């Protein structure tokens, strides 16, 4: 990657805010960034090389920070969220049960033998997708708290489950890696809480603010990248590493000043770069070579929405169920790992990404509808 290419990627990222500018459209910023990547990437003009190692590494950094921000956005210290945790667990469990049956049915219909993979995809939610949409549109209230809990639980569970179902031969290693990440995040939380209780964190804050050292931001970046490094070394997705680090920081309370600094780095550069890269990585033309898999993509995409809307029987409005169906991280990991291991059939990866775009489109429409009316 050259500076010229980097300038192009950053410029393409501006399409997100431009499309989101008209408030009446209620479009999330990431939608424009994905579209820009699709147009200039593999599917479109082919100007952006999504396989460029530098581009990939910068995108991974952006994904790590997106997941970190998603974790810090989960208000784990809020008593109202704790009250909504039960509802979130029950809804996520119901969606998981329905997804298991639906995944088996889809695998049987298309003869791929990937029932377990489809079940995880259908059940997955994306904190990196849903929470930014919620924040950008200003959605709030008890239903949003329950939705936040549900998405966080489903996202974490599916991130852990994906390596187990896509590479059963290394399931034990993946399970151990996830436990190590969880333990590291727990230790991180205890250390941060100790520093806060002893006043050390306050002293560092005062020195940093007086001398303009941005020490807290630097420490936050060290924590998230270190945990993502552990995840990579243990062959666990950086999704889990970034999200776990964010939860640890959220557990002790992220200082407002640090939150703004992380937001500037993430949403100002690395997050848009990640979403442009993701769009550039998609090869939607591949579906033309395997028309039957277009139907598979549509079934998986709208099937995920239907599966999540099953929570309506527990009192969740359909629009919130559709928003919970938004996916990104788990499908990307499934396509990446599945392609590397040769698990997916030709065109199946593109079908999974088509399904992802379907869930994003439906979630965007649902969020727009929610934003257009008072939250209850």
UniProtKB/TrEMBL annotation:
Question: Where does the chain cross the membrane?
Answer: 30-48, 55-76, 88-107, 116-134, 146-166, 173-195, 221-250, 262-280, 292-311, 351-372
- Cellular compartments per GO CC: membrane
Spell out the Pfam families in the cross-references. Answer: Na_H_Exchanger
Where mainly located? membrane
UniProt-recorded Gene Ontology molecular function terms = antiporter activity
Tell me the InterPro entries matching this sequence: Cation/H_exchanger_TM, Na+/solute_symporter_sf
Provide the membrane topology annotation. Answer: Multi-pass membrane protein
Where in or outside the cell it occurs: the entry states: Membrane
Example of a GO biological process term:
sodium ion transport
Query: Domain named Cation/H+ exchanger transmembrane: which ranges?
Result: 14-368
Q: Which UniProt keywords apply?
A: Antiport, Ion transport, Membrane, Sodium, Sodium transport, Transmembrane, Transmembrane helix, Transport
Family note: Belongs to the monovalent cation:proton antiporter 2 (CPA2) transporter (TC 2.A.37) family.
> What is this protein identified as?
Transporter (CPA2 family)
Q: Which organism is it from?
A: Nocardia neocaledoniensis
């Amino acid at each position: 990657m050259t500076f010229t290419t980097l300038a192009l990627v950053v410029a393409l990222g501006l399409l997100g805010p431009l499309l989101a500018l008209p408030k009446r459209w209620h479009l999330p910023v990431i939608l424009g960034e994905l579209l820009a990547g699709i147009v200039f990437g593999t599917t479109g003009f082919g100007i952006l090389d999504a396989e460029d190692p530098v581009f990939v590494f910068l995108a991974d950094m952006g994904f790590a920070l997106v997941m970190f921000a998603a974790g810090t956005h989960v208000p784990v210290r809020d008593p109202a969220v704790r009250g909504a945790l039960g509802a979130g667990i029950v809804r996520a469990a119901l969606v998981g049960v329905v997804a298991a049956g639906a995944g088996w049915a889809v695998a049987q219909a298309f003869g791929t033998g990937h029932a377990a993979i489809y079940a995880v995809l259908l059940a997955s939610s994306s904190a990196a997708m849903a929470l930014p949409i919620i924040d950008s549109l200003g959605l709030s209230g008890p239903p949003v708290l329950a939705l936040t809990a549900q998405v966080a639980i489903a996202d974490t569970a599916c991130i852990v489950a994906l390596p187990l179902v896509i590479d059963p031969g290394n399931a034990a290693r993946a399970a151990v890696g996830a436990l190590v990440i969880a333990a590291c995040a727990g230790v991180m939380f205890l250390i941060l809480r100790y520093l806060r209780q002893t006043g050390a964190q306050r002293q560092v804050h005062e020195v940093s603010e007086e001398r303009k050292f941005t020490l807290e931001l630097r420490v936050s970046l060290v924590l998230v990248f270190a945990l993502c490094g552990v995840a990579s070394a243990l062959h666990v997705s950086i999704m889990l590493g970034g999200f776990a680090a964010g939860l640890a920081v959220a557990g002790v309370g992220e200082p407002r000043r640090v939150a703004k600094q992380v937001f500037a780095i993430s949403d100002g550069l690395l997050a848009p770069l990640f979403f442009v890269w993701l769009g550039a990585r998609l090869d939607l033309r591949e579906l033309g070579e395997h028309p039957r898999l277009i139907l598979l993509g549509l079934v998986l995409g709208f099937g995920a929405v239907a599966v999540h809307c099953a929570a309506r029987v527990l009192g969740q409005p359909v629009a919130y169920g559709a928003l919970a169906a938004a996916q990104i991280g788990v499908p990307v990991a499934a396509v990446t790992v599945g392609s590397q291991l040769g698990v997916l059939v030709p065109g199946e990866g593109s079908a999974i990404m088509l399904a992802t775009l379907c869930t994003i489109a439906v979630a965007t429409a649902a969020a727009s509808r929610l934003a257009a009316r008072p939250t209850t």
